[in-house]
Design a protein that fits this description.
33% strand; 293 residues; 17 strands; five-stranded antiparallel β-sheet; mainly beta
């Protein structure tokens, strides 16, 4: 509706562009944002030879797709699938959308890992990220809340982080678009990517401690010649679980220490010079012969 909040969409597409020409919808600023929502068709439908850049808008709650580039190899929901090399033709050159490999966030710190397969272009590309409260019925995303954007050179894997416009939490639905940059603006934008649901973050911390090895409780001190136990304790205070067998620790002993290759606790539970134990969790394994290098 006119108030920007009431659900009063069109009976068909929110915006339909047919034929030749060029257009830019939105400019990445709050003032330039367009709200395109609650339409019975697509949020934005583009057909024909028109080139249209779609930047930083609020696109959500549409019955069909958020952005529909008509043509190419389409799914039953009319999503135009990415093609190898992105050589297909159609509206907006049927530009490939980003593939989201991983999204994690702590508050407004937004970490991304995406893959693009797009034509070589001297000015590079822009990737916009959005947060949604629900997945579109197609399984792909829309653009309910614009989080921010990054500029990339072109095809390949791209990782990094930026400060998002809003915090991102577990269960938020993330989607992204690709837009081709020009010397001073943009010209074409892809459809929305497959929806990615954020999981709880894993936050690993490591603390090193040195204690005197004193099995007879003789009150020994850490002086030259006495043995010490050098320990590294890894904890996960985050809400997400660590992947099984994916924690690798690399550390150097201080120069005043020498490594003793023997039974570290003289008859205790350890039988080697390095000992591993796991508490309050499962899934990690330990083999002295292969895990110590």
């Amino acid at each position: 509706g006119i108030d920007g909040a009431s659900a009063f969409g069109n009976g068909s597409h929110g915006i339909e562009i047919v034929g030749a020409g060029s257009a830019v919808i939105g400019d990445g600023t709050t003032a330039g944002r367009n709200i395109i929502a609650h339409n019975s068709g697509d949020g934005i439908s583009i057909d024909g030879g028109c080139t249209t850049a779609i930047i930083g808008n609020e696109i959500h709650s549409n019955t069909s797709l958020g952005i529909d580039l008509v043509g190419g190899v389409e799914t039953g929901f009319t999503v135009t699938m990415n093609d190898s090399g992105d050589g297909d033709t159609g509206p907006n050159d049927l530009l490939n959308f980003p593939v989201i490999n991983m999204i994690s966030a702590v508050g407004t710190t937004f970490n991304y890992d995406i893959t693009l397969e797009v034509p070589t272009h001297g000015n590079g590309y822009r990737v916009d990220f959005f947060k949604n409260s629900a997945v579109n019925s197609s399984g792909y995303g829309e653009g309910e809340v614009f989080l921010g954007s990054v500029n990339v050179s072109g095809s390949g894997n791209h990782t990094g982080s930026f400060t998002a416009s809003e915090s991102v939490s577990e269960g938020d639905v993330i989607a992204a678009t690709t837009t081709r940059r020009t010397a001073s603006s943009w010209d074409i934008t892809s459809e929305f990517s497959l929806a990615y649901i954020t999981a709880a973050a894993t936050e690993l911390t490591a603390i090193k401690t040195v204690t005197v090895f004193d099995p007879l409780a003789q009150g020994l001190f850490a002086i030259p010649g006495n043995d010490v136990i050098y320990a590294i304790t890894v904890t996960n205070p985050g809400l997400g679980a660590a992947d099984a067998d994916t924690i690798e620790l690399i550390d150097s002993l201080p120069p005043e220490m020498s490594f003793y290759n023997g039974d570290m606790d003289d008859g205790g539970p350890a039988t080697d010079a390095v000992y591993f134990t796991q508490e309050n969790g499962a899934g990690l394994t330990w083999t002295y012969g292969t895990d110590v290098r």
